[in-house]
Each structure stands twice: as C-alpha cells, then as structure tokens.
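Thought: the user wants the 3D structure for the chain below. I'll pass the sequence to the structure tool as-is, report back what it returns, then summarize two notable features.
Action: structure_tool
Action Input:
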Amino acid sequence: MKIKHQLAIFNALTRLLVILILWLMLPILVENVVYNHINNTLLEKKKKFIEHLNQEEINDFLENQDDSAETFSEFSTLHSEFLVLSRVPVKPRHKKTTFTNELRNIEGEENEYRILQHHFTYQGEDYQLEIGSSLSEVNDLTFVIRFFIIIVFVVILFITFLADTFYIEYLLKPFYKIIDTKIRRVNEPDAFDHTPIKAVSRDFRELDFVLNQMMDRISEVFKKEKQFISNVSHELLTPIALLKNKLENLLQNESLNDNAVDKIAGSLKTLDMLKKIINNLLLISRIDNNQYEANEEINLREIVSDLQEDLQDRMEDRKISFINKTTNNFAFKGNKTLIHILIYNLVTNAIKYNKHGGSIMIEDGFTDDCYFITVKDSGIGMEESQTEKIFSRFARISSDQEGQGLGLAIAQSIASFHHIVIKVKSVLNEGTTFTLLFEKPI
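Observation:
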C-alpha cells in the first residue's frame, strides 16, 4: 500500500474515532443543555405559582385531589405539562427544591417527565408542589439530532478523506517524480538527470540534492572502474600474447623432443583458456557497464537460422538433431552481436550437456502479449539446487565437462541489458528448457 493511502486512511480513522466519541457524548451534552433549560422554565413557573398563591387556590387544588384518584391539574391538553399541589409534612432533611425524572400516568397515558418538587410552608401548613414537563419531545429531538449529526459526520468524513488523498498526493508528487525520473529510468550514471525537482516540501528538495550527490560519486566510481578494466585487459592480454608467440616460435625448434613439445602445447592451451576467460570477463563487465549500443533491428528467426548452420558440424559429431519451430518474424531494437552471443551460448550449452543422439528444439510464440522463444534439449538435466546457481560466474553443472562456467553468466548479463527475462526449467536425466521472455513486439 502506498504511503499516500496509508496517511489518508490514518487521518480518516482518527477522524472517525473523534466522530464516534462525539456521537456517544452527544446525548449527554444535549440532555444537559435541555435539562438546564427545562429546569429554568420549571423554576420560573414555580416562582409565579408561589407569588400568586392564596388560600382559596390551595383549597381548589386540594378539592380536585379529593375528586380524583390522580392528584394533578393540567396546564396542557397534550399532557406535555402538569402541576400537582399536595399537603405533605416537610421533613427536616428534605431539600427545598429538587429535580427528578419519573414516569407519570396522565389520563391513562404514561410519559416520562422532568419534575420539579418544591416543599414550602404556607400559613402554618406544609405543602409539596410538583411541576412536570414531558421529556418525550426531548427524546425525539435527541434522536433526530443524533441521526442528523451522524449523516453530517459521514459526509464530512468522506469529503475530508478525498481532500486528504488529493492533498497528500500533491505533497508526494515530487517523491514519485524522483523515483520515476532519477531512479527507475536510470540504467547508467551518465543517463542520470541532475535537474532539480520542484517541491514544496524541504524534505524532498533535500532528498533530490542528496541523490544528485550520490549519483555523482557513483558516476566517478564507474569511470574509474571502466578505466581499470581497460588497463587490466591491456596489461593481461599483452603478456599472454607475447608468451604465446614465444612458445609458438619455440615449437619450431627441431631439437625439442616429444616430451618438451607436449609440455609447450599444454602451456599454449592454458594460455588460450586464460585469454578466453579474460575476454569473457571483459565482455560481462562491458555489458554490465552499458558500453554497448542497443539500436539495431534484430530478427530472432534469422539469428536462429544462422546458428543452425554455424553449429551443424558440432551437432552432427554427437548425432544431435536440431528442430527449428520458430514461426514468428519477431523484431526488436538491441545489439545484434550480443543477442547472437546470447542464443549461441544457450544452444552450445544444450549441445554440451546433451546426450549422444539427443535433440535440440527451438520454438517461439506469444503469451500475455509477450513474445517468447525456448531452447529445449534432451540432455542430462539438472536438480533444483543446480538451477539456482547456473547463472553465477564460474558455475559448472558437472566437473567432467569442459568450459569456464561463464557462458550462462554472459547470457544473463546480455538478457538484463536488453530487459529480457530468462527462465529455466529442468528435469534430471530428461532435459532442460531455457525460455526468453521479451517485453512486447515492435
């Protein structure tokens, strides 16, 4: 998951948590505000009632209590309020005025009320005054407010999530640009773009500056390495060539016996092998350092046909049949010499590790819009542990076979240079299949 999505989700979750807390606290807040308002209203009504109270009114209330089992007098026909006056002895510990929430049955209808209870003494008699206000509307209002608020919160959450996503993407745009232009697309130091990236954030400007400095150091190291390789190749190949000439001249001496001639011939063979190893290592190094051009039009079917003619004698010596099933004229841009070496190494590897009288089959096709070509042999095959090491330098499947173990390492370097994927599948004593996967046809 990208960092912009992680940040947006984190911000959304924190907001959701805050919204959840507020939503849970909302009833308490609403009730406190509403109860405070109702309490003040009830106190105002109690004050007016007490101020206008007289003995005649008290008697009217008490007579109404005698006529009805329910001692109340209504102020509202909708049962939203009531008032009750009772003659009750006042206990010393009673608070003068209290507020409670109770269920009351008014004319057969039960509702919850906020009730003010006030104890007072009038002309030597103790009375209790109860003034109630219905809470049904308050509860309905609280539900409506909670429902409305939750909708508002959801809308706010959605809008802020989108805003965060776009804003974070805007902030991280320089970061992705740095990755795309200065890391992902750079295959060699010389192709690095030192143009500063425009960024609002100081952190990304600093990252861009540090990357430029790092690539300058890498470029300098690459130049030194290329120069070192060039010097080493000259210093090693020159004395090898001199030694080879001297030994070849020495072989012309007729006074040498057969034993000396064999030793000199063995030395020449060793020098040839050393020269081949150095050339192969130099080839790998030049490929890895992108010292080759890749702008030639290459047709793989033609290369396979040419290789079949070049290696026909070697295959006939071991009675190996070559089956060419390539049917597509697939073409792409690259280095023709290197691609020739790549296919050549795979085919010669199939010859070297094949069985006497075996076969080599090359076929191609398309899968998922990708072109592929396979080199399949009926040779000795490999175990899984061996297939994991075959592309390493100086790795050899069998110590009995000739070679320096650099052929497949060179093939891997050439494939990487051309953005080709090499896959290998092998079964012991049945054969090996190398598959080259190309990005897409031109």
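Final Answer: Structure generated. The CA atoms of residues 32 and 216 lie 68 Å apart. The two ends are 33 Å apart (CA to CA).
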